[in-house]
Design a protein that fits this description.
elongated, single chain, alpha+beta
Length: 333
């Protein structure tokens, strides 16, 4: 979107820009122009942040909207000739080594939901248990070492995706976010969150567990101990995919052993039998669960309607009146 002020400046944020800054004129070296995105003056003591800018593709793809955070000064049409203005591509996120879901916390982690802590821990226990069982089968020569390497690699990828989903900001909306002035001129309106008392972009919802408004929120997943939103949907889908592949592979291995094993050397004995039986139950449950979740997420991407919005429309019997567009895969991956 192009935005020009009364001085003729192009106010369109360059790709990657996250803040607009100003500094007194006459400083050396000269700051970049308003049209430049890169800046080595981000940490200049004489520079001052005017506005923070965010362009979230996942939450604005249907409405082509941007959000300006804390906009004032020049962004509202006022300009002081004693200052030079430029865009900066650094960010203003917290560097504090604290865990939580507040804006001041440096590491995202939901600490207020004990059931979420328990269920997310169970995910790691189940996956590590499965990897250990396969490793023991390979060590006792009941299974090819190559297959064991492949399965354990899948387990590691699943755990990495789970950690990424759990410790990633799902797309929390800053409490100081306000709509851009161009949206107001077009007559567009934004909902206000009665909990955060701030504006919400389209498709954003307030999560009472994380206590934040999340852009593009699909649902809060207790197995992830986090919301699934615009910025961690990719890692959530990867976790579901790796878990589905690992479960299907394990059941295939056990099925082939059960139906085609005709030698004593390939029969599971002793403790291995009990480990395999427990793992079989885990894999069946995870295969069914991840299959349903993958279909749910796929439906949301195809229709552009998240789980929360779909449940609300079912309750109001307005599912057939949807005008959302599919979510572009490039916005997810």
């Amino acid at each position: 979107m192009m935005h020009e002020d009364s001085y003729g400046y192009d106010r369109t944020p360059p790709a990657g820009a996250v803040s607009l800054r100003k500094r007194p004129r006459g400083r050396s070296p000269p700051p970049p122009s308003l049209r430049q995105a890169d800046s080595n003056l981000a940490q200049d003591d004489n520079s001052e942040i005017i506005s923070l800018i965010t362009n979230n593709n996942a939450s604005t793809q249907n409405n082509n909207r941007s959000m300006i955070i804390g906009g004032n000064g020049f962004m509202q049409g006022e300009k002081d000739d004693n200052y030079e203005y430029y865009y900066d591509d650094t960010n203003e996120f917290s560097w504090d080594w604290t865990f939580g879901t507040d804006e001041k916390d440096g590491v995202w982690l939901n600490k207020t939901d004990p059931p979420g802590h328990l269920l997310s821990a169970f995910v790691w226990i189940f996956i590590m248990y499965s990897a250990l069982t396969i490793a023991l089968l390979a060590e006792s020569n009941h299974l090819s070492h190559f297959i064991a390497y492949v399965y354990i690699t899948i387990c590691c990828l699943a755990l990495a995706s789970h950690a990424k989903t759990m410790f990633s900001d799902p797309g929390a909306v800053p409490q100081c976010a306000v709509p851009i002035d161009a949206a107001a001129r077009r007559g567009e309106t934004h909902a206000m969150c009665r909990h955060c008392m701030s504006f919400k972009p389209p498709n954003a919802h307030h999560c009472r567990i994380c206590n934040r408004c999340v852009s593009g929120m699909d649902h809060h997943c207790p197995w992830m101990n986090n919301c699934v939103g615009a910025t961690n949907l990719k890692s959530f889908i990867l976790f579901l995919g790796y878990t589905w592949i690992g479960s299907a592979l394990a059941l295939l291995i056990f099925g082939c052993n059960y139906f085609f094993c005709n030698k004593e050397s390939c029969e599971f004995t002793g403790v291995l039998v009990q480990l395999v039986r427990i793992m079989t139950l885990i894999c069946i449950a995870s295969l069914l669960f991840t299959s349903s979740m993958l279909m749910n997420v796929t439906y949301g991407i195809i229709t552009g309607i998240g789980t929360i919005d779909r449940l609300k429309r079912k309750a109001n019997d307005t599912v057939g009146y949807s005008d959302e567009e599919p979510i572009a895969l490039e916005d997810v991956f």
